[in-house]
Design goal:
The chain has 279 residues and is α+β, with helices and mostly antiparallel strands. It contains eight helices and 13 strands. The protein is 30% helix and 25% strand. Strand 9 and strand 10 form a beta hairpin. Helix 1 runs antiparallel to helix 2, helix 3 packs parallel to helix 4 and helix 5 crosses helix 6. The radius of gyration is 19 Å and the shape is globular. Belongs to the glycine N-acyltransferase family.
Length: 279
């Protein structure tokens, strides 16, 4: 029902996903970066068939509780095949917690399968997909007198405590992996402590943008988004972000920097058996 791709097949899959951009952006971005960075834990990439797949999933290994925050990334061109995989395959263990990032158009499928299996399924986010097609057209940003650096392991706790989806330190593993393996940017105060920051997910999306309340209104977010966009572009990564629909401030920030959205597409995250992760 689902087959794991080899290293050579991953390259072919990436080329196939390019045909479906921007809808396939998250899975495509993950494959682009996976060919260059071996982060921990490595996700298995599964398809319904090969080479003309209709469903492709990037599924993380779960070795400890904090790994649960590493979402499965999913792209599908055939809703019926997706529903069959969710219902009948062993890809997902519906008796345990898992989280999936995919198109909001699959909402009813997830709800229906979860209902049939008698388990709770909750959509925890619905986001705009914001992409930056031409990094060279980023507006000029004045960072004079501001210390811009990268996050390091000593900053993991700070980022985890302020992330809205983190709780009781269970997101520490995800954030440690992001800081260790993917680009990040932060503004440091006079004592060398981060007061504003942004990270890169394993899929290439930039996010977790946050500024401490007492340092807001100084233009730090604009500086960091611009800096990280340029850095990721130089590495050959796609430059994009997910902005929650209710986050008007971030939407305006990214739009002013030249990011655009496809009005016909939204990304969503679904959590199954969410209560288990915080037990």
């Amino acid at each position: 029902m689902a087959f794991e791709l080899s290293e050579d097949q991953l390259k072919t899959a990436g080329n196939e996903l390019k045909k479906y951009l921007p809808m396939s952006q998250q899975v495509y971005g993950f494959l682009v970066i996976r060919n260059r960075v071996r982060s921990d834990p490595v996700r298995r990439v599964l398809v319904d068939k090969w080479p003309q797949f209709r469903v492709i999933m990037c599924k993380p290994q779960v070795e400890q509780k904090s790994d649960l925050f590493k979402d499965t990334l999913l792209f599908a061109t055939d809703a019926a095949v997706l529903e069959e995989i969710l219902s009948k395959s062993s890809v997902f263990d519906w008796s345990k917690y898992f989280c999936v990032g995919t198109s909001v158009s699959h909402t009813e499928i997830f709800k229906a399968v979860a209902s049939a299996k008698g388990v709770p399924c909750k959509r925890v986010a619905k986001c705009y997909l914001m992409t930056l097609e031409d990094v060279s057209r980023l507006p000029p940003v004045d960072s004079s007198g501001i210390s811009v650096s990268s996050l390091d392991e000593s900053h993991i706790g700070l980022v985890s405590q302020t992330w809205k989806f983190g709780k009781d330190d269970v997101a520490v593993g995800l954030i440690r992996n992001m800081i260790a393996n993917f680009p990040s940017c932060c503004v440091l105060d006079a004592e060398g402590k981060p007061v504003s920051w942004i990270l890169t997910y394993a899929s290439g999306a930039i996010g977790m943008l946050y500024t401490l309340p007492e340092h807001r209104g100084k233009g730090y977010a604009k500086i960091l988004v611009s800096s990280l966009a340029k850095r990721n572009h130089a590495l050959g990564y796609p430059v994009y972000s997910f902005i929650e629909e209710e986050n008007a401030v971030s939407y305006r920030l990214f739009t002013n920097l030249g990011f655009t959205e496809d009005p016909s597409y939204r990304e969503a995250w679904f959590r199954v058996n969410e209560f288990q992760i915080f037990q």
